[in-house]
Design brief:
The chain has 927 residues and is mainly beta. 3% of the residues lie in helices and 53% in strands. One of its GO terms (cellular component) is transporter complex.
């Protein structure tokens, strides 16, 4: 609609329309003369006495208003020309540059450049259309707003505004021209309700939008109940961007049974740049009057380069007393340490993940090295504390462009925290050449000839392995002693003083593998024949030389250096086919078809005798016709026994004896075709359902062996029912008889009086089932292997994720089961005096994981394991999760075991107030 000039004190109104001065023809522009009196300010710093500022056109530079003022209202606009005011009624809206004000009633006093906004009350007394002030990215909801568009200062009463993750409620806020806010009787909270569940109550506060909130003395109010918790000042960063910032890390305090009172995870986070962040934290323990409690330090470096790589490096070191400082029956009965405590422990972890790029090399690292007791003594995380072994790898691999060559270099380390054994592979080098067809190498053109299928491939492996596990100095299973050796293995401590010993005990070797493919052919249209030749060499750079010493009744072994080449050669011929058995039903039956797929395969492999070529064994010359007698067992060896030259070497001793193997394998799978009841479009009326994923049988027969020609038969079965029930069975069957001491006899079982074909030697059975009726494709309700939020190893920089992020309350209940059992036939079960008969079942355990939704915001979960062989639960954990809108409660109880204990934590969800939490725990660390 158009606006026309009106008399003072009157307004033109059209119900249900919007009144706007920007619609032509324009409203009258009132140009008041510039005041001659000095400019004065009111109590809130709003400049008065200025000239006319309500202009539609941009200012010419002489007026106070620098840009166009746009205003509109749904009901009407009233102009008071003499008072130089415009009053906007019902859903009024005023825009001036980046400033926007919306309210039920807005008054524009252009004589003072002042905009006043107020709400209104409905018939029930509730406030409606409360003023909403926006300036840039900042938004303020208030009861009343007074704003000077010239000085950009204002007063806002009963205000609510969001700063970062927090919300500010204040009785009165003054805003200056720098956009800083000064509040009186303010409340700071991360709860987004009008009446928040909790807040920090402060008489005064200063807000710098996008940067920080600073308060004077404050106290915490929970549920409108003031608490004595507070401090002399408050500081809350409210950054707009996600850019990291440096700052102090506040510690947690408490008492530990083994080290006294403590301050944990105090330190500093340094955001070096946009790619690197450094976190330095430490723990300090008071100890007692006699001993210092120790300390722990952590250094973490996180780095990331977008589209290239990311990684995290951490180093942890702890020093503590070897005995507990506090003495009590409760503590001593539940200290939970699986091994003796050590004074100094360390842990190093490094993960480097590259972004795959075509044609480029790939460097990756996954390093985890620690002292045997570090995680047992410094973490409540069961997955780390109970892990018996760690492994580390650093690798680089690359596929050469325009060449069939790929290579990889890897450094590897394995560590057993139970035994203290550490093995290093420095380095592990592999080089491969993809299959190359001979006619292409010769430059010939393809003409469909048989020789065009001839191809060759090559693989090279080089390893240098070191270990601190020194094996027993004996051969033939420890029966033949060595001079100067030990009959027991030992663990060498890792240190600079032992580097020379580690190098002397290193194992170095290289393997070359050539594969010659002679093509693939079809016989009788259905049988596929694939012949091939494999040739390989194993290179060692030292060997063992033996000499029998009659006076010592032992053998002396000397290590000689030099290149040693061991060869392997084999030819193979594979014959295989596939046939099907199908049953088809017509009509509207649920099951339309059933198909059985059978894949038999027969392999022939011949290996020549290379004993004389490889010289892998040495014959000891015994003088005087004497025999070698083991002084420990009394076992007598024949004259001139054969001893291995490469005993315990890296790749072992390749098979040099002549062999001719006939192998047989049979693979089966069964599936059916059923009607798809979920299809309503007719596009996919049928679907396939697998009944048996695999039923496989494997065995072989060595024609040239002098005994035990027939190898064990391996039978495996696997299936999945309804995508929830998984069953896997693997078994081994033996065809030979056993004597009373369970040693095999070279006679088949069908040759005995009570004949049978085979005996079950070993078996394993694994089944799992997922009970989850309403989950569908949703994530699990309760996360597994999650460390407690008040784990002593976690500090304030670790985010406490919002409860909804990792607990799915939409799933009413779920249960996951896993049962595993292994069987080993030990021959006749013999009952010994005072002891029960031994069981052939070596292990049998049941794992249960589940959760149930008790209420809309309360969930209970559990994880347990029961060992049927030892008849005890191995590990049990009970979890409780409670959502309190802006708070969360989680608890965990481990009723028994080395890591028994409990913890309960109530904490604010916001990362900004992640230190605002109350934790109670009783574990082996602070019982």
């Amino acid at each position: 609609m158009s606006l026309v000039a009106v008399q003072p004190g009157f307004a033109q109104r059209r119900p249900g329309t919007t009144v706007s001065p920007d619609v032509r023809p324009a409203p009258p522009i009132i140009n008041a003369p510039q005041p001659t009196a000095p400019v004065r300010s009111d109590s809130v710093g709003l400049v008065t006495g200025a000239g006319d500022s309500l202009r539609v056109a941009a200012a010419t530079g002489k007026g106070a208003v620098a840009t166009t003022v746009k205003y509109k209202a749904q009901d009407s606009i009233r102009f008071e020309v003499q008072n130089k005011k415009a009053i906007l009624y019902d859903k009024a809206d005023v825009n001036y540059g980046e400033m926007n004000i919306k309210a039920a009633l807005i008054t524009v006093d252009y004589s003072r450049n002042l905009v006043t906004a107020e709400g209104k009350k409905d018939s029930t007394g509730r406030a409606q259309d409360r003023p909403l002030f926006k300036q840039g990215a900042e938004t303020y909801q208030a009861g009343r707003i007074d704003y000077n568009i010239e000085t950009k200062r204002g007063r806002i009463t009963d205000v609510v505004t969001q700063q970062g993750e927090g919300y500010i409620h204040a009785e009165t806020i003054k805003k200056n021209d720098l956009n800083e806010l000064f509040g009186v009787r303010g409340r700071y909270t991360t709860c987004n309700l009008e009446n928040p569940h909790f807040y920090i109550n402060a008489s005064r506060m200063k807000v710098i939008p996008g940067q920080k909130v600073i308060t004077g003395p404050f106290n915490l109010v929970i549920g409108d109940i003031p608490t004595p918790l507070g401090f002399l000042f408050g500081y809350f960063p409210t950054p707009k961007s996600t850019k990291r910032a440096s700052g102090l890390i506040m510690p947690t305090f408490g008492q530990s049974a083994d080290r006294g009172f403590f301050l944990r995870n105090m330190g500093y986070y340094w955001a070096a740049n946009e790619h690197i962040g450094v976190r330095l934290t430490g723990d300090l323990y008071s100890g007692n009057a006699e001993r210092f409690g120790g300390w722990r330090g952590t250094a973490e470096v996180q780095y990331i380069t977008r589209y290239r790589y990311s990684g995290l490096f951490s180093f942890n070191y702890s020093s503590q007393p070897t005995a507990q400082l506090l003495s009590s029956t409760a503590v001593e009965a539940s200290n939970g340490y699986a091994q003796p405590r050590s004074a100094r422990n360390f842990a190093v972890a490094w993960s480097h993940t590259p972004v795959a790029r075509p044609g480029g090399g790939r460097f990756s690292a996954n390093v985890n090295i620690s002292s045997n007791n570090y995680y047992r003594q410094n973490t409540y995380n069961a997955s780390r504390a109970l892990t018996p072994a760690f492994s580390s790898t650093i690798s680089y691999s690359k596929q050469l462009r325009n060449a069939p060559i790929n290579y990889a270099v890897q450094l590897a380390q394995t560590q057993n925290t139970q035994t203290g054994t550490m093995d290093f592979t420095l380095p592990d080098l592999t080089l491969g050449v993809a299959r190359q067809y001979l006619y292409e190498l010769a430059g010939l053109e393809a003409r469909g000839r048989f020789y065009e299928q001839l191809a060759v491939s090559y693989d090279l492996t080089f390893q240098n392995r070191l270990s601190n596990n020194i094996p027993a100095s004996a051969i033939n299973g420890g029966a033949i002693p060595l001079i100067g050796g030990s009959s027991e293995a030992s663990i060498m401590p890792i240190g600079f003083s032992n580097i020379s010993k580690l190098l002397r005990n290193s194992q170095t070797g290289m393997q070359h593998r050539f594969g010659i493919s002679l093509g693939s052919y079809t016989l009788f249209k259905h049988i596929n024949i694939t012949p091939g030749v494999n040739y390989g060499q194993t290179w060692y750079f030292k060997s063992l030389e033996y000499e029998y010493v009659p006076t010592a009744q032992a053998v002396r072994a000397d290590t000689t250096t030099g290149l040693r080449v061991l060869q392997t050669l084999s030819t193979n011929l594979n014959l295989g086919t596939t046939f099907y058995g199908t049953v088809v039903r017509s009509g509207t039956h649920k099951i339309q078809a059933l198909r059985h797929k059978v894949t038999p395969n027969i392999s022939l492999q011949y290996t020549p005798d290379l004993t004389n070529t490889n010289r892998a064994f040495q014959t000891i010359n015994l003088t005087g016709g004497t025999s070698l007698v083991d002084p420990l067992t009394g076992r007598t060896y024949a004259t001139d026994p054969l001893l291995p030259r490469y005993n315990g070497f890296l790749y072992g001793v390749p098979t040099s004896t002549q062999a001719a193997l006939i192998g047989f394998s049979l693979q089966n799978s069964v599936e059916m075709k059923v009607r798809n009841s979920e299809d309503t479009t007719g596009i996919t009326p049928f679907r396939k359902v697998s009944l048996i994923d695999g039923l496989e049988l494997n065995t072989s027969y060595n024609i040239l062996a002098d005994s035990f020609n027939l190898s064990d038969m391996v039978l495996s079965f696997r299936t999945q029912v309804a995508k929830k029930l998984n069953i896997t069975i693997t078994s081994t069957f033996d065809f030979y008889q056993q004597d009373s001491s369970r040693r095999p006899i070279n006679k088949f079982l069908w040759q005995q009086e009570k004949w049978r074909i085979a005996r079950l030697a070993s078996a394993s059975f694994t089944t799992s089932y997922q009970f989850n009726p309403a989950s569908g494709n949703k994530k699990s309700a309760i996360p597994r292997d999650v460390a407690p939020v008040n784990d002593p190893t976690l500090g304030s920089p670790n985010r406490i994720d919002p409860y909804e992020d990792y607990v799915n309350f939409e799933i009413p209940w779920e249960l996951s089961t896993n049962f595993t059992a292994t069987y080993a036939n030990q021959g006749p079960l013999i009952a010994r005096a005072g002891r029960p008969r031994s069981s052939p079942y070596t292990s049998a355990s049941l794992n249960l994981n589940g959760s149930v939704k008790l209420t809309e915001t309360l969930r209970f979960g559990f994880s347990t394991n029961y060992d049927f062989i030892n008849r005890n639960p191995a590990f049990t954990s009970l979890d409780v999760f409670k959502d309190l809108h802006c708070w969360q409660i989680n608890g965990n109880w481990r009723p028994f075991g080395n890591y028994r204990g409990y913890f309960v934590t109530i904490a604010a969800k916001s990362t900004l107030l992640q230190s605002l939490k109350l934790s109670r725990n009783k574990t082996f660390l602070n019982n």
